[in-house]
Amino acid sequence: MLDTVNTALPWLDPVLSHAAAASLALVLLFGALAKLRDLSAFVMATEAYGLLPPLLVSPVAHALALSEAAAGLLLLPVSTRPLGAALALGVLGVASSAVALALRQGRSIDCGCGGYGSRGSGLTLSGALLWRNAALLGLGLAALAPLAPRPVGWADGLAACAAALFAIGLYAVTNQLLSNQPRLAELRNNHD
Predict the structure, then answer these.
(1) How far apart are CA 181 and CA 165, in angstroms?
(2) How far is the CA of 110 from the CAs of 132, 169, 181, 182, in angstroms?
(3) Distances (CA, A) of 89 to 18, 135, 155
């Protein structure tokens, strides 16, 4: 199946592919770490979606957290990157589908993206969360694309690292803006 995908996708410059893979790997690993640190909270967040029978909530939550971690780890080496990208696309597809279905049901819950504890992650389900996930899916596709056949030097490695750090910063800013969105709406409503 991956061979079919590789022939359908265009060649991508190695710097872009490495940066996309590293960025997505870090996002997935940080998210998985938060979930694995407090699996009971992630199980509760998964249950709040109301999409699974109670008997399946815990096994699915555990499988999602472990799959997210595995995808992040597999994205880092070039040799396992196609498998990691495919797994990442699957995890992101499942998570995005759950968000879309819960939004359609009118649920206003914590997304369960990570960073639980007493306050939750601070990210409430929204259409903007789907757009954020679409950008992550784009990184997964970029990581899956075949590499253009050209030599890669140390400057390429620095450029890929810089791009990955920029992408992680952008992801963090996006999450902060999304978590502030309900508070800003409340302030606007109280001000009027």
Answers:
(1) 24
(2) 15, 22, 13, 12
(3) 16, 11, 29
Tell me if the pTM is above 0.70.
yes
**What is the 3-class SS of the chain, one letter each residue?**
CHHHHHHHCCCECHHHHHHHHHHHHHHHHHHHHHHHHCHHHHHHHHHHCCCCCHHHHHHHHHHHHHHHHHHHHHHCCHHHHHHHHHHHHHHHHHHHHHHHHHHHCCCCCECCCCCCCCCCCCCECCHHHHHHHHHHHHHHHHHHCCECCCCCCHHHHHHHHHHHHHHHHHHHHHHHHHHHHHHHHHHHHHHC
Q: Which residues pair with 147 in a beta bridge?
A: 12
pLDDT in tens, 70-122: 999 999 999 999 999 999 999 999 999 999 999 999 988 888 886 544 455 67
